[in-house]
Structure formats: C-alpha cells, structure tokens
Design goal:
Largest sheet: none
Number of strands: 0
Order of helices and strands: HH
Shape: elongated
Number of helices: 2
Radius of gyration: 13 Å
Length: 66
Amino acid sequence: MITTLYIGFLGLIFSSYFVYLSEKDAKGPNGKSDFESYADALWWGVVIKHSVTSIKNHYKHTEKVV
C-alpha cells in the first residue's frame, strides 16, 4: 500500500511539472497564464486528481505534446 501511495504521489508531481512546462506561456481568456508558478500546476493536479467536475474550470489552452 505504501508503494501505491508513493507511485501516485510521484505521478502527481511529474504530471504537474509537465503541465506547467507546456502551459506556462499560454495566455487564457483573461490575458494571463493560468499557471504562473509550479504551485499553481501542482494545485491543478490535486484538484483534477480528486474532482472530475473541476475540469470545467481548469483546462489546457495549448495542444503541446510533452
């Protein structure tokens, strides 16, 4: 069980980092980036991981492939 939690935590860290790298320069409808820091991307990862309905509020603006 500890291994599963560890792997899930690492997945969250790495996926948030890759989302931050690909989205940090994209501008949203309000004219600024939704991911101004890595902490914003990490929060996005936590919210997305735990809530399917938050996808409506937090979405990617680019189609970059990492």
